[in-house]
Amino acid sequence: MSQWEPTQASADADAPAPDTFCAYLAEQLIAKKGFDPGTVPEAAELAAHCDIILSRHDGFSLIIACLVDREAHPGRTFDLSPAAVEAIGRACLKYTGKVSTTKMPIGIEIYEVGPGSADESRRRRLAAYKRSRLFSKVMPSAWIVDTTSASVWSNARWGAAVARGLFIRKLLRSPRESDAALRASMAVAVAEPSFPWLTYTMLAALIAIFAAELIYGIGPWTKLLQPSTSTLVAFGGLMPSLVFKSGEWYRLLSAPLLHADAVHLLMNGIALFLAGRILESLVGRAWFATMFVISAIGGSLLSLTLNADNLVSVGASGAVTGLFAAILVTSFHFPSGADRTSLQMAAIYVLVPALLPLLSTFHGIKVDYGAHVGGALGGLAVGLLMLALWPRSEPRPRCRPAAAGVAMAGLVAFAYPALPLARNYPAAAFAAVLFPEALLPKSDVDARAQSADLVARYPRDPRARLFRAAALLETNDKMGAERELRAGLAEEQLWRSMFNPDLSIRLHTMLATLLADTQRPDEARAIAQPACAATTSGAMRALLDRARLCGT
Fold it and tell me: Which residues, 6+ apart, have CB-to-CB distance to 549 below 8 Å?
């Protein structure tokens, strides 16, 4: 892209009168819309056919505004041919940039400003200044600004015509702003750049948590450093069934800190670094941390609402999407121009793929668009609040102590899940060694037939031990049955809450009656006590009563 440097250029030696509306419109375009006086050398011929020429270059696109002052020069018109304007535009395309691989267009806006209505002949003449082909990168447009009737006509595209038309009509109908007010509207206080240590701290925390997933995870991880699903659940992955049925709401806070594999972490880490490098210096650490907290919670809430009960969701992508949504909103703190556009483009590059379901999976992992949208809504809300609290005369948004309070509360909230997760981790780890429900035998006959295989594959599952004990008792192998029943009860504290109480009753009853049958009555009564306390009727109670194991 060629170096852009506007040069003062005008073919008319007589400058427009400073009190004409054309001159005032030029001042407003400079102050409010990011234009600069002058243009590039390739557009010098445009300047020769108007009274004022302005340019706006934001690093991506170039817009040249040619203003004809019909108050200062009654009857003057813009008389350069549409073909010549097209040729000048093509020569200036070297100043526009690219978005991805798409070359950005150049706009040439032609204004005739002064008394005189937009009659048919005048509209027909100016309507010729338009895009010559559907995909042409040169996009001329024309405007008639009637200072007598305060009306505006344009052949510009609908969105541009409405926005710029409203802007000009407001200027026509409102008292003029002073030079001091215009200068104040252009001034934006900018904070001194600072090292983004909070961003690096957050990245280090995410890496440390992911390392813990691998080191202390349940079951092996793959070559791509992908922890097992059991690991993600044990470390606090967001699973609707566990939240709604077991009341584990802390998973809303723990899930954004986990990642499904190394690629997942890398992508979120890069995005967090890019967002943090912009926001931490721009708005300060307190507001940056607040954005992350609110966006993370917003992402978890919408993910919880939309996802299936058995789906495990993890990742900081909701929070990161919220950060980029906040960047997009806060860009409007700056006047039109390069600063605003660079922030908007940085946000759009991330938001478009994050919010549009172009891919249902990535690297075998389902993309949680609920978390992305929820995070974006959270970031949007904080961004709008911040924008309302950010005068252009101040380098950063106001209410920083309140934002710091929210950030500290968020830090405590994100740390809280460590307590219940540590308490529940042994049970979660144990759940991973149980055989899946799909392997549960359909009858007692099947249970005994499959018992040897189930014990070999799932030696810590108490159901497998119960099935095996029943099979051994059929062959009168009392010693083997006792061994299996004791193995099944060995970890009862871990599995008791996972199964129906009937499993514990059956194991205790079978072992107690077996001990009584082998002349160990005292030990039999001790083993029988939990079953005696848990049941007062039924087949198991009948066995206990027959052996006189529940009496005093």
Answer: 512, 513, 516, 524, 525, 528, 532
